[in-house]
Design goal:
By secondary structure, this protein is of the alpha/beta class. It contains ten helices and 17 strands. The chain has a single domain, classed as NAD(P)-binding Rossmann-like Domain (Rossmann fold), CATH 3.40.50.
């Protein structure tokens, strides 16, 4: 499906984007990547020599290069994130990098005559947090389904949900032939990422101690390579459309993550106790498996090992 197709990837220099670019190149796609950041030395030569990369801020830059490229498939990954409890200083960045940027890309999608598939990297932060947040430890994990209640947890979740609705409008009103997939992605970690697991690995290697809060929190951690694979398979499957969860399908507590890290690194940490409600969330993957016949395979332990090898290179 992807071979010889013109494929746009926004956020191509990110932790998921680099993995996706490599996959698309191997599958024979003609790829345009757009990101504020360069495809730096981390990106393999395969990407550098076979991907046209533009360094641009899509919230303000001209979109004519994308229009001229005339993509048939779009993977919209470009986004900004902070902690789940976001700081006021992040709100303007969210407006620029999530709401406004995505609005411009979705609006353009409605004007691209050759566009067949639009895959949006959305977020599980759209779901109502009362479904998976608890006042005490020992609560069961809630594996969220795509039909669960929506009530965005923070401004990032609100922006992601707004983009989903804009994309639905384009699909319903402007281009009914466009197949749109909103991949609600869970807790990503990977090589060169800013996620908590990758940060702790870098700090442990540097001999620094870390502070840990809410050790009983349970998250659906998914390795960036699996995310890229999942997004690709969703683009290729004619049965994939609308909202689809993209996680590992396994909830892992912070205490379990610390145990895995302790087996491979000299990790020193200070337990700061419980400071907020306990999260116990995970992804129900039934719709993903039905649409693609696939599910993620890289465990948290294997993903951690890959990140450690990357940081020690």
């Amino acid at each position: 499906m992807i071979n010889d197709k013109r494929v746009l990837v926004t956020g191509g220099a990110g932790v998921i984007g680099r993995q996706l670019l490599s996959l698309l190149v191997r599958e024979g796609a003609e790829v345009l990547s757009v990101d504020r950041e360069p495809l730096d030395d981390v990106a393999p030569d395969l990407i550098k020599h076979r991907v046209m990369h533009i360094e641009a801020d899509l919230s303000i830059a001209s979109l004519e290069p994308i229009r001229d490229f005339a993509p048939q498939v779009v993977f919209h990954l470009a986004a900004a994130f902070e902690r789940s409890s976001e700081s006021p200083g992040f709100w303007y960045r969210n407006w620029q990098d999530n709401t406004l940027l995505s609005h411009r890309i979705v609006e353009l999608a409605g004007q691209l005559p050759n566009l067949e598939v639009f895959v949006f990297a959305s977020s599980y932060l759209i779901y109502a947090n009362d479904l998976y947040m608890h006042d005490g430890a020992g609560s069961a994990t809630r594996y969220l389904t795509e039909d669960d209640a929506v009530s965005p947890r923070n401004v990032t979740g609100a922006s992601k949900y707004y983009t989903e609705l804009e994309l639905q409008f384009v699909n319903d009103v402007v281009n009914p032939g466009l197949r749109c997939v909103n991949a609600r992605i869970y807790r990503v970690f990977g090589c060169g990422s800013k996620d908590v697991i990758s940060r702790w690995i870098r700090m442990a290697i540097a001999g620094q101690g870390v502070e840990v809060y809410n050790k009983e929190n349970g998250f659906d951690f998914i390795y960036a390579g699996d995310v890229a694979d999942g997004l690709y398979r969703l683009a290729c499957s004619a049965d994939a459309r609308g909202v689809v969860n993209l996680g590992s399908g396994v909830s892992t507590t912070i205490a379990e993550v610390l145990g895995i890290l302790g087996e491979q690194l000299d990790l020193r940490y200070t337990d700061k106790g419980v400071v907020e409600r306990i999260e116990r969330s995970g992804a129900n993957l039934d719709r993903l498996k039905q649409a693609t016949g696939w599910q993620p395979s890289i465990s948290v332990a294997e993903g951690i090992q890959r990140v450690i090898e990357y940081e020690n290179r």
